[in-house]
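> forwarded from #structure-qc
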């Protein structure tokens, strides 16, 4: 239990910035959906989907590779691993920027942003900066400096939020009231471009704040170590690419699957806005990931049954917390839906499907420990390629008929299949002995409870629905605590002297 408490604490600390950051970005959705048309917001979603793919390519699994080799028994100098990784990412990021600027016009045309090359250039620079910055942030996690990690993340996120509000709300008001104050830098026709500019400025400031993590040690590039890291991380690159494509491929395929580009961007905007409601599950998984990788690599050094039990407990509590999040979102969807404009409400039906799909992905991430610990990351690559094939096939088959609902079901099928095949392979290659009936009970009971409250719903009367749903949510939580023999006192952190 001590190991799980440590994992929970690290999830809370390391994931704080991710959760707060995503929540604050989530709060920008009402602004975007009120200020921009669905077709304009669709362009933003499309470009960010390309950015997500580029981010995976430019980091090429180095984060996990750094944790693996910094804890490797054959390399006793973590700073050599760190400097080798930094040099590798620096060279690849600079090369990416040079190539992007050299081919900016054909790239913009391919990304449906012809005439807006500045959008593509800004996001290309941003993704290069963020890809390089990911390693100093991983170094902070390795050195167990959660407060600095969270503080730097929050400063960058706060700046991004502030700049969005400044450019999208304050500047248009000043343009009417006192245009002379801002006419030297503000162009009202730039529109959604200010979203990308705010992101670029905040990422640049974030990198500058990481300078202390980039000096004070000798830079040394170890070719042998680098080759081993690439061999280990290359399958993770494919895994990450397939994973992010499973999440964002709908944005890329939409313009290709609809003959009417305006209709495609409109549907894309509606779907993307509603995904922001389901992002609560994504925030939890991201927070968990920050703590879980250092946790499993550190636990791998232990011996005996305690290590395996820690892995079982991690899965169990992940399922419980994830299902509480699912119920919380679905029980209060009548309130949460007002984070988006009413014109986007037609897409609310995708929220439960996408949340369960993300839950399946979280289970898959938990199961990934067996191939990461045994250095057989190629298995993760194959699982992700299988998922990608399902995503592509179902999007092509379903989107022309069902629109964005086809995207949601494709995601559900993709992550569900990846989860299932990883579990089956893991039972053979690295058996953990998860209590599957117990895990299934928590999942099924949450789904049944959600269906029950939907059947007795009082329409869109949030207060009346809350009166019924809140006790049921509390009841689910207490049921889980009772089954796991956990008292409320166990949940309160004990005061210890350091």
């Amino acid at each position: 239990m001590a190991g799980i408490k440590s994992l929970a604490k690290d999830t809370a600390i390391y994931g704080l910035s991710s959760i707060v950051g995503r929540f604050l970005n989530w709060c920008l959705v009402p602004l975007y959906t009120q200020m921009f048309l669905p077709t304009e917001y669709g362009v933003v979603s499309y470009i960010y989907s390309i950015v997500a793919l580029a981010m995976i390519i430019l980091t090429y699994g180095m984060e996990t590779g750094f944790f693996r080799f910094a804890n490797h028994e054959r390399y006793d100098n973590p700073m050599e691993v760190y400097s080798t990784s930094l040099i590798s990412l620096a060279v690849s990021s600079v090369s990416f920027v040079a190539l992007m600027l050299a081919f900016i016009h054909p790239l913009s045309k391919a990304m449906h942003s012809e005439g807006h090359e500045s959008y593509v250039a800004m996001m290309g620079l941003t993704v290069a900066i963020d890809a390089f910055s990911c390693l100093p942030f991983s170094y902070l996690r390795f050195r167990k400096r959660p407060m600095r990690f969270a503080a730097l993340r929050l400063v960058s996120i706060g700046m991004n939020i502030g700049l969005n509000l400044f450019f999208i709300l304050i500047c248009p008001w000043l343009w009417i009231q006192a245009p002379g104050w801002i006419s030297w830098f503000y162009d009202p026709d730039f529109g959604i471009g200010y979203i990308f500019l705010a992101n670029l400025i905040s990422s640049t400031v974030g990198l500058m704040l990481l300078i202390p993590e980039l000096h004070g040690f000798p830079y040394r590039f170890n070719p042998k170590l680098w080759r081993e890291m690439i061999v280990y991380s290359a399958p993770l690159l494919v895994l990450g690419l397939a994973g992010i494509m499973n999440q964002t491929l709908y944005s890329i395929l939409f313009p290709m699957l609809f003959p009417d580009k305006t209709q495609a961007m409109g549907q894309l905007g509606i779907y993307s806005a509603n995904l922001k409601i389901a992002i609560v599950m994504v925030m939890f998984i991201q927070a968990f990931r920050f703590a879980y990788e250092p946790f499993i690599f550190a636990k791998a050094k232990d011996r005996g049954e305690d290590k395996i039990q820690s892995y079982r407990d991690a899965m169990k509590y992940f399922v419980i917390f994830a299902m509480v999040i699912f119920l919380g979102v679905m029980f209060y969807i009548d309130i949460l839906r007002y984070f988006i404009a009413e014109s986007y409400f037609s897409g609310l039906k995708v929220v439960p499907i996408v949340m369960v799909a993300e839950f399946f992905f979280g289970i898959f991430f938990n199961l990934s420990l067996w191939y990461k610990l045994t250095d057989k990351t190629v298995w993760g690559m194959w699982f992700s390629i299988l998922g990608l094939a399902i995503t592509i096939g179902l999007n092509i088959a379903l989107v022309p008929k069902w629109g964005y609902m086809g995207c949601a079901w494709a995601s559900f099928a993709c992550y569900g299949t990846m989860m299932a095949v990883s579990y089956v392979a893991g039972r053979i290659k690295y058996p953990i002995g998860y209590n599957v009936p117990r895990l299934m009970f928590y999942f099924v009971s949450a789904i049944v409870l959600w269906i029950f409250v939907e059947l007795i719903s009082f329409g869109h009367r949030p207060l009346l629905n809350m009166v019924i749903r809140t006790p049921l949510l509390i009841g689910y939580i207490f049921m889980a605590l009772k089954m796991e023999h956990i008292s409320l006192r166990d949940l309160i952190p004990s005061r210890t002297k350091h």
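QC bot note: The radius of gyration is 23 Å. DSSP finds 20 helices and no strands in the chain.
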